[in-house]
Amino acid sequence: MDFPKCTVCGKSTKNNCNKCKSAWYCSAVCQKKDWALHKLLCANFTTFIETRPTTEIDSNEKLPPNVVSTTYKSAILFPENATIPQLIWIKSNIESTYEERFEKRPLTPNFHYYETLCSGLSKYMEMPSAHNDDDVEIWVGDNSLAECKANRCFATLNAGYFHGDVGGIFRPTHPILYAGNAIATRSITTQHEDPVVGKHEQTLYQDVTLGDLRRAFQFMARKNIIFEADKKNLFFLGDPGQWIDAVKISVSGDMYFDNKPKYRQVSIKSDHDIFTDKDTDVSHISELMGYPLLLRKSEYEDSWIDKVKKGMLLPHPFMNSEPCLLLRNMDVENKDGKWQSIDAEKWDHGMDSPVLVARKDKKDLTRYQVEALVTYVEVFIVPFFQEHDPDMSTRSTNNSITKNKREVVVAKFGSSTLFENFFENFKNMKLAAYRGNTDLSWANAVFFDRS
């Protein structure tokens, strides 16, 4: 006997929700994970199922020529203008089409029968189009992205998660995934053997379960690639081990208009483009210390970009010099002749972007670690070169320092032990009051994981 699958992890189980009887869980742990989403519909599910409409066609009314029968199937609506999903009834027709190729074949019917929800879906959207995830279909209007508002329900459930994070001037920060209404239905596809057409599939529709609410939402949110919010999202369930703590270094506009901190904590998926994109750069200083950091330009926030467009100008809204400190060239061989320089055309051209920072080995990274490393370069390395090579900052290349001197510099400042000592001292300064600011959250700051 095949048992239902756990709504969260997919394991076979006999245990369902005691109240709605419409979602299955293999353990209390999985049920707790699903609860924030499940409770939105659980309490009213049993009552709703009892309200199934009767057929609209009474005994005195004839069915349309191509409709064999009609009924209603339950579905889940993610409404355009509301924050909570809703249970709805969708009209379902069994329709027929005449197949000329079946003529004069006495063992084969001349009509092909199939089930369609189009007439029921038309109440909610024009030209419905389905996107499949196993036994769940997500219906949206073909023209919804161009003609409708962003789906408020999905935006609420998916708050803090985004599917885009590519740098660019005045680009939409996070393009809309769903607009207009979205509807989840349950379908099963069966295989049939026909003497004329051979093997073919037939799709039939069933009532949704509340386990389908989880499956539908996870499918809709499958392109989530980055999470950034002050409040934890309790609805979306990220795959265990697939999300990594990373850091964004804010541009001045983020801080001035949106009051965001210079270093802010984010989470990214392990297949984020920062790990493969050719525009990603590696911090030499972090690489020397044994925990290489990747840096990649990110997007501007729509909220303050619109303000800049309307004339609410900050003298320098696109300043972000801190990433340049991490990207100073510390290649002892100096193959490119750019020792202690950066790619100014890319990173220091006066229109800086917010910058995403992640560990190359995909281990977690904290804002404390990034801030400490930036400050370490600013306090130790930059003053050293200003003293020994004062003209360095005005040249695109730097060949004046010999290889022996470069080796001395790398041995001195590329030491993880030296930086670790600095990290602890910097932590104490932050807790005491550094540059006039006391940040008690630094009490939880830990050094880089080197395991």
UniProtKB/TrEMBL annotation:
GO terms for molecular function: zinc ion binding. Signal peptide: none annotated. Transmembrane segments: none annotated. Keywords: Metal-binding, Zinc, Zinc-finger. Residues 6-42 form the MYND-type domain. It holds the Pfam family zf-MYND. This is MYND-type domain-containing protein.
